[in-house]
Amino acid sequence: MCLLAFTLSPAFGWTSDADDQGGVEEIVVKATRTATLIRDEPLRVEAVPAEEIEENLTIQPGNLSSLLNELPGIRVQSAAPGLGGAGLQLRGMPTRHTLVLTDGLPLLGAEPDAFGILQTPPLDLARVEVIKGAASALYGGSALGGVLNLVSQTADTEPGILANATSRGGSDLVGFLTDKVSSRWSDTLTVGAHSQSREDVSGDGWADLPSYRRFTLRPRVWWDGGQGRSLFLTAGFTDENREGGTLPGRVLPGGSAFPEALRTRRFDGGAVSQWMLADGLSSSGRVSLTSTHLDRTFGTQRKPQLRPRCSARKR
């Protein structure tokens, strides 16, 4: 999938200084396509700060499901339960009407499948922004329920490494590296390796916890040219194998085995630019490209799928 978008709007300030009147920190949200202060935004936008994200890192450092479950008005709905899939519901709308963005770009696809948020480690997140309610005027029909925007950490953040192991055969190893090349150029790199063994907790021969092996890689680059000129570049790679269904050598009550498996390979890339123009105007452009290959086994059926889709938008 590739997405192209350009906007022309009045110039705004990027600030997070304390409010002069009450000493309250100002939060600039980006889920509304043009960065604005959250107090000045007419849409209902909620921002989850980095402190709450850090608390949830110790619970599930390999995906976002634990963090999103705690947000009011958001429900992580089970989808593809044999493989542990989950979709995101906002205000009770179907999961297909929730748009998930990363740094303002649909890097998981315009309509993420049941595994997109489960393949995203939260170690490099600075903030989670949620628009509750229809945002189709900004993002199209896939945002009828709302928008979830994942804002990443910049190179000003301290690097970190997180290792985790569970009693049910799960393990996570995630690293977040930063580099300030110069006063204008900076970059970050997030790498992760995650695994889970197939577990039959109830002893009935069916995998209550599906197994998976996942590797993720995401570099990000920022350029600040001064005078309102900036450029952000990102790319990502995800490789995951999931297996569920009946365990080897076990069968269903009907006497047949029912294996489930999913192989996911996703490549994505995107860019966001900001340029100041004359007469107090600013021009911003966004472009993203996503290619997802899914190889699904469901019992005796196997369905390989390639999802490169392209759409363009100008505003």
Describe this entry's structure for a reader.
With 315 residues, this protein is mostly beta strands. It is 5% helix and 50% strand. The protein is built from 3 helices and 18 strands. Strands 1, 10, 11, 12, 13, 14, 15, 16, 17 and 18 form a 10-stranded mixed sheet that branches. Strands 4-8-9-7 form a 4-stranded mixed sheet. A hairpin with a 2-residue loop joins strand 13 and strand 14.
Structure at a glance:
By secondary structure, the protein is mostly beta strands. The protein has 3 helices and 18 strands.
Order of helices and strands: EEEEHHEEEEHEEEEEEEEEE
Classified by CATH, the class is Mainly Beta
Envelope shape? globular
Question: What percent of the residues sit in helical stretches (DSSP H or I)?
Answer: under 10%
CATH superfamily label: TonB-dependent receptor, plug domain
Give the SSE layout.
Blueprint: E1 2-10, E2 28-29, E3 36-37, E4 45-48, H1 50-57, H2 65-69, E5 74-78, E6 86-90, E7 98-102, E8 125-132, H3 136-139, E9 146-152, E10 160-165, E11 170-180, E12 185-196, E13 211-226, E14 229-245, E15 259-276, E16 281-298, E17 301-308, E18 310-312
Parallel strand pairs: 1-18, 7-9
Antiparallel strand pairs: 1-16, 2-3, 4-8, 5-6, 8-9, 10-11, 11-12, 12-13, 13-14, 14-15, 15-16, 16-17
List keywords for this structure.
315 residues; disordered C terminus; Ferric Hydroxamate Uptake Protein, Chain A, domain 1; ten-stranded mixed β-sheet
